[in-house]
Each structure stands twice: as C-alpha cells, then as structure tokens.
Amino acid sequence: MAISDWPEAERPRERLLAHGPLRLSDAELLAVCLRSGAAGASAVDLARDLLARFSGLRGLLSADPAALRAVRGLGAAKVAQLAAILEIARRCLAEQLSAGPALGAPAAVRDYLQLSLGARPHEVFIALFLDAQHRVLRVEELFRGTLTQTSVYPREVVKAALAANAAAVIVAHNHPSGVAQPSQADELLTRRLKDALALVDVKLLDHFVVAADRALSFAERGLI
Questions:
Q1: What 3-state DSSP class applies to 58?
Q2: pTM for this one?
Q3: Side by side, which strands form the sheet with 124-130?
Q4: pLDDT at 23
C-alpha cells in the first residue's frame, strides 16, 4: 500500500510536521527523504530494506553509489539525495568544529570522524589542520590505501601542515575491519609524525583510530 493511502495521522511526513522528527523511526525519517518507494513497496518499506541491507544509517549514507544504484527502487535521483544528506551532515559538523577549539568539542570531532571514515571500505588517512587557538582551518584526505593498510609519509603531512599554515594537527585513519584498536605500526607512525611535525613547530594533538561504532583517541590513552 502506498503511503498516500495510509491514514493521514500515520504518514511519516505528516507525523514529522505535527510532532517533530524525534517521534519518527530511522526508517520513517529516511522515507521522508526518499519521498517514494518502489513497485509494490512503500517508501517506508524501501527505507527498512535499505537500513537492513547496509546495516543502519551510517552504512547506508557511506555506501558506494554503485551499490546503492543496484538496489531496486533507487535511481540516480534517490542516490543523489542520500549523498546530499551525508554531505550536509558532514558540513554541519565541520562548521561546528570551525566555530571553536576542536579540543573543546571532542564529541563533535568523534562524530565528524566516524561519519567521514567509519564506513569506508578501505583505509583512509586524514588530517585536521588547526590554528593557534585549535580551530579547524581545513580537513584533508592525505592518503588512501587498501582494505587492510595504507602508506603514510610524515614528510607529506609536514608539507600539508605548512601549506595550511597550521599550528597543530589532529590525524585519523580508519580500520575497515571494525576494530578500533591501534597496532604497533600505528603507534610507531604516531611517534614519527609527532617528531617530524615538531621540527617545524607544529604540534600533533591527537591520532584517532576510527571504526564503524567508535573512535579511539591516542591522547586519551596516553600514547602521544
């Protein structure tokens, strides 16, 4: 049954307008964004299928566009809508980080990193370049690797920090395996990055290891 055939009080969009978004489930919120379903399935049915198929909202919004287009009922328009939702969320968090010291908003840093890296299928290394007040100047993806590893060159991180005129840096990489546990190689890399950046008077504030459900901080573990 199409949502337009439902009683008005049960339709997701009308419920959102009447009671606010907090009253809606993930599937209902997603259905509002999708607007329509597929043949024989309402927008809510399609939303439930997508959430199950991609293991929730984060997995869905970070999914490869080709994987999304392979789903019956998802055409180019809906795939573009999902990509836009993810980018809006990223930019909102980036604005929050830029508005004040990054270290003063650790939850926002974690949320941004998990949204950006948590569901990536391959390892990615990014850096948040900060000014002297630890406000975010810019965020750059510096290296991209394979399912299990990526090569990070401290010299390139130093060059990028100087180009950004950064006074401090927070770096992060993801573990597609889903285990947010630093390896010995991660700890060695962190020491090398800290030493290399110190040579140009740039401070390494933290290194995060990101998985789908958490982001581990080296600073909180006393590893920096």
A1: helix
A2: 0.69
A3: 136-144, 124-130, 168-174, 203-210, 215-217
A4: 87
